[in-house]
């Protein structure tokens, strides 16, 4: 027993050492990162982090085993704009939970995954200007007593959201009494709503419209209660790449490609304000 | 009823199978790699090389006692800091190999320890060197004892690949979730398909383990040791 | 890391307690269910043996995540509403009980069959002999492997993160995405898991040596 205890002591001492070392490593790392734009030009590929569980924006198509959606098409158009006609867009599926670590650690070059520009995030990454203006709303089962976000403000209400999305922070402001459950991605969250784990699912209206198109028993109610401009995120210190993205976005908007894509994906969505989304 | 049958349309089955292919690929590569590394680390752990064995032992204990999901996060988010940019597929393979080879190293250590000390002493007395005795006398017996435990560890490995959906590995679990995420009615059929497909793979592995167990005749006399080894799930 | 502990200490603590709590509940029920099926597996009645075998093989060969998601997604749609914590704990219990059953069974079988025959000859029924003669000896053998099962159970409780079960892993995900320091957050979470599992694992190794 004595030997066992002494071993344990040594072990915890070692753990503490590892902890200390990793803390030091944290503070000293950083700075000298490779230039993403130069590397991408060399390899003629941009690696985008995109959603694969979000109808209309980025959704895995069961038939073709490919991701499809507005963001995918926009990313392809922008890749051609930045790298020329030979440029290839490579897609890595991310969730709200994994996208930030993946970008900061360099697995992906840019995030285009229904990500709202917020001041808190802007401290960690650099955003392009907005490429889509969404707003947060709630999705409920048809005939639900919940008509807008304020109806959720009672104790016992359960709102479903996704880990790492800012909508779970917002809901705490609009319905402080409600409990928030954070699932790992949108298909999990919607599955949870369907199986009655909560009264409402909250996130951006564009995503919710996609869910209600697929499942007519559920509808978006109460309109939007926040402004959620989506931006393309790149790692800090990648100014040339960020500038390239911004000017590519401008080009895509000017050429009318942008409006075509909006029409292609949102033209048939009931309740969606097409005119408001168009850009010159 | 018809809508439920639609769950097994050819399109969906094909999509599920493409997920299953990823699961099988990840499993096979990780099984081979973790078998090799597991035995190496297990031996290092056993032979008491100054400092090296202690450090390896420490690392094995740490990794063995962490949840696999954490190891997956560490590899997926941590490897890029070392200059690699893994796709979810390779991140999972690395995570699986790291985790499972540590589990196997522990089985190997226990297996070697279960061989009576007299065997080693006898072999040394007959003029074999330490390494020769290990190589020709101890290891063959130990591996025979360990095989059931190792195979059941591999079964866990196959099941545990499902956890990698958290980093969006396009495996069987992930593809089933995509299908039922897009159509409510397919939820139960998809769970059924998941259960059946995982069961087939894992159960055939477990039959293999029973067959090997029988074939090698490790039963009866060394039962207590065997009890100590049939412990690994994941 | 110290920063994480400082600003998210509360969340980590609730996660830690939830993980412990879930593990203890699951262990308790898995022990009962597992021992039950282990005994069924060695009864003289073939029908019971088949049932036990089927139960064990079913839950041993399906991923824990599939079982847990089944309880989280399918059961509420048709039967009753259950929370993520409950779904996770039930899944964990069923999954672990199959492994515990196998462990206990091999313990029972390692007891000399003469013991059972002797007690039967002395007029004890099968159940009496099991209860008073065989099981007490079997449990002595299986304590180290059972301890290892418990360690696995604690680690496996991390699937609660998939069903919003408020466990350590779930809080780790929340903290990682809130603080945007993913590595440090997960290191903290790992440290807390080690506080539970590492001492257990060393104690089991010590017991194993002592019993051998």
Q: If you had to describe this structure to a student in words, what would you say it looks like?
A:
The complex is a heterotrimer of chains A (280), B (234) and C (212). Chain A folds into 2 domains: 36-133 and 230-272, 3-Layer(aba) Sandwich (D-Maltodextrin-Binding Protein, domain 2), CATH 3.40.190.10; 136-226, D-Maltodextrin-Binding Protein, domain 2 (3-Layer(aba) Sandwich). Chain A is 42% helix and 21% strand. Chain A contains 11 helices and 15 strands. In chain A, a hairpin with a 4-residue loop joins β3 and β4. Residues 219-234 of chain B have low confidence and may be disordered. In chain B, α2 packs antiparallel against α3 (52-64), α2 (10-47) runs antiparallel to α8 (172-182) and α8 packs antiparallel against α9. Chain B has helices at 2-5, 10-47, 52-64, 68-78, 88-113, 117-125, 130-160, 172-182, 187-216, 223-229. Chain B has one domain (2-229): MetI-like fold (Orthogonal Bundle), CATH 1.10.3720.10. Chain C has helices at residues 2-41, 46-60, 64-78, 84-110, 113-121, 126-156, 168-179, 182-211. Chains in contact: A-B, A-C, B-C.
What's the structural blueprint in terms of helices and strands?
The complex is a heterotrimer of chains A (about 280), B (about 230) and C (about 210).
Chain A: H1 2-28, H2 36-43, E1 45-50, E2 53-54, E3 58-61, E4 66-68, H3 70-83, E5 88-93, H4 99-105, E6 110-111, H5 119-122, E7 125-127, E8 132-134, E9 136-141, E10 158-162, H6 167-174, E11 179-183, H7 186-194, E12 200-204, H8 205-214, E13 218-221, E14 228-230, E15 233-235, H9 239-254, H10 257-266, H11 274-277
Parallel strand pairs in A: 1-5, 1-6, 10-11, 10-12
Antiparallel strand pairs in A: 2-3, 3-4, 6-15, 7-15, 8-14, 9-12, 9-13
Helix pairs in contact in A: 3-9, 3-10
Chain B: H1 2-5, H2 10-47, H3 52-64, H4 68-78, H5 88-113, H6 117-125, H7 130-160, H8 172-182, H9 187-216, H10 223-229
Helix pairs in contact in B: 2-3, 2-5, 2-8, 3-5, 4-5, 5-7, 6-7, 7-9, 8-9
Chain C: H1 2-41, H2 46-60, H3 64-78, H4 84-110, H5 113-121, H6 126-156, H7 168-179, H8 182-211
Helix pairs in contact in C: 1-2, 1-4, 1-6, 1-7, 1-8, 2-4, 3-4, 4-6, 5-6, 6-8, 7-8
